[in-house]
Specification:
Elements (H helix, E strand, L loop, with lengths): L4 E19 L5 E21 L2 E6 L15 H13 L4 E7 L10 H16 L6 H11 L3 H6 L3 E5 L3 E4 L1 E2 L3 E6 L6 H7 L16 E2 L15 H7 L2 H11 L3 E6 L6 E5 L2 H14 L4 E6 L1
Parallel strand pairs: 3-4, 7-9
Antiparallel strand pairs: 1-2, 2-4, 2-5, 5-6, 8-11, 8-12, 10-11
Helix pairs in contact: 1-2
Bound molecules: cytidine-5'-monophosphate.
């Protein structure tokens, strides 16, 4: 009998804007963020097995070599689902790490969401969407939106997901290959009440072209991330200069930056130019 195998792409998450709208008593920040997903990501493969195991392979696997496997979100997600099932279910899990780690594009969160989806199928679990999102949020603030996997507004600390419609621009994603710790960036940011007047309204249709700074859309973590890693400002400026780019910004808590384009060939050319300009950086072009 062939072993059952389920492979799911853990797509890179991009925050097209990220507004910090407040702070909770426990220190977590309240957000209003438009999230979309690139057609590129890590790969999660799950196969039938009598115990849970996790192998990490691929381009960025080495960045995780110093971390105990039990601290990987993929492992934690698998254990959380196993606890829910209350049975000693097993799976041989392989994570192909194609995204840079600690980079503001939700690699770990996307991996956790993908392994949840794969194991629910592999283990044929009967579990409600609500329970899945509770497990997802317990793993990290970005995991629920990654579980949803389509363009959405993310509010609260990530528990509130509002589906939206968005055009599908081409995207270039650049990461300097230097990790930034999310907790540090949030802690060191000094937020002013910069709420947009429409942040609490239910706008459900967005055009990526309108998400400009002039229209009030921004990433509130960008300045702090630039203070820690000034090259982020250079990368954003370089992306802006590429032909056809209509929006350039940082994603999440950084250091990954992105540019949006109408034209596929222009996005491909921009990616090539940026790779030449920043040879140490990780750079892809895709569509969101
Ligand atoms: O939830 P996640 O593990 O991604 O968050 C990492 C850290 O970033 C949290 O421990 C917290 O310090 C900070 N954070 C925050 N507000 C958020 C999300 C994360 O302050 N909405």
């Amino acid at each position: 009998m062939m072993t059952k195998e389920i492979t799911i792409t853990a797509s890179a998450k991009v925050n097209l804007f990220l507004h910090v709208t407040g702070k909770r008593a426990d220190g977590y920040h309240l957000l209003d963020s438009l999230v979309a997903f690139a057609d590129y990501g890590d790969l999660i493969k799950t196969e039938e097995s009598d115990k849970i195991s996790l192998d990490i392979i691929g381009e960025h696997a080495a960045s995780l070599s110093g971390f105990p496997i039990e601290e990987n979100l993929v492992w934690k997600a698998a254990i959380a689902l196993q606890n829910y099932a209350a049975k000693p279910l097993g799976a041989k899990i392989t994570l192909e790490k194609r995204l840079p780690v600690a980079s503001g594009i939700g690699g770990g969160s996307a991996d956790a969401a993908a392994v949840i989806l794969a194991l629910v199928k592999l283990w044929k679990l009967d579990i409600s969407e609500h329970k899945l999102s509770v497990i997802a949020l317990s793993l990290g603030s970005d995991v629920p939106v990654c579980l949803y996997g389509k363009p959405a507004l993310m509010r609260g600390i990530g528990e509130e997901i509002i589906p939206i419609s968005l055009d599908k621009p081409y995207i270039v994603i650049v990461n300097p290959n230097i990790p930034l710790a999310t907790a540090d960036i949030f802690r060191e940011s000094d937020f002013k009440p910069l709420l947009r007047s429409d942040d609490n309204k239910e706008i459900r249709q967005f055009s990526s072209k309108n998400l400009t700074i002039e229209n009030g859309y921004r990433n509130d973590l960008e300045n702090t991330a630039i203070k820690q890693l000034p090259v982020i400002a250079n990368i954003i400026a370089s992306i802006k200069e590429t032909k056809g780019c209509f929006l350039a910004r940082m994603s999440g808590s950084g250091a990954t930056c992105f540019g949006l384009y109408d034209d596929k060939v222009m996005a491909q050319k921009a990616a090539e130019e940026l790779k030449n300009q920043y040879p140490q950086a990780w750079c892809i072009n895709s569509v969101i």
